[in-house]
Design goal:
199 residues; alpha+beta; 2 domains; globular
């Protein structure tokens, strides 16, 4: 009888232990605990920076150089998509390139997250999984999407899948800007359009 009571006690303890552990596992699956808390201040800052970028893209569409440059820091450092020996471009150089786009293209439109497989999110910040230090800092933002525009001279529609990393200063302006897209692909699309429209 004593042996039976011992076995029964072990079975009951095992059942309780399993039940507690199973509940904990289910809780973690339903409410993952990363140990990282994003402050309301950082969430608000991230939203502000998304709005800053949307001001930037709307100004591109409207060809409003003053509005566009109003969200860019005077000290901007831009790493352009084409290889230039690793040189950064400052405020005046950045403004000159934007003006060149305005002169050569119309209806320049950014489609958020277009071309990004597996997510509808265009904007990312922080680094929960990273080779660097884990953080929730919203001051560096990654942006994904597609630019589409019309070449002024030929009427060709040009598409570009685009990715950028933007850094914001304490005033909420774009202070660092690195972007990647197929620059030569723009000319290729224009040439193909012209070839297909020849008599």
């Amino acid at each position: 009888m004593k042996k039976f009571k011992s076995i029964l006690a072990i079975v009951i303890l095992a059942a309780i232990s399993y039940s507690c552990n199973n509940s904990a596992v289910l809780k973690v699956m339903e409410e993952p605990e990363t140990g990282i808390i994003v402050s309301d201040e950082n969430k608000a800052k991230f939203e502000d920076q998304i709005n800053t970028f949307r001001t930037f893209t709307k100004a591109f569409h409207d060809e409003d150089i003053n509005q566009l440059m109003s969200v860019v820091a005077d000290s901007i450092q831009w790493s352009p998509p084409e290889y230039n020996g690793g040189e950064t471009v400052g405020y005046d150089g950045f403004k000159a390139v934007v003006s060149t786009y305005f002169e050569n293209f119309d209806e320049i439109t950014f489609n958020e997250a277009e071309g990004l497989i597996g997510s509808d999110n265009a904007f990312w910040s922080g680094s929960l999984y990273s080779t660097g230090e884990i953080n929730t800092d919203p001051n560096v933002m990654r942006v994904y999407g597609t630019w589409v525009c019309h070449h002024t001279e030929t009427g060709a529609t040009v598409y570009n899948k685009w990715y950028a990393v933007l850094g914001f200063n304490d005033d909420g302006k774009i202070a660092t800007f690195s972007d990647w897209f197929d620059v030569t692909g723009m000319q290729t699309q224009i040439e193909k359009f012209m070839e297909s429209n020849q008599d």
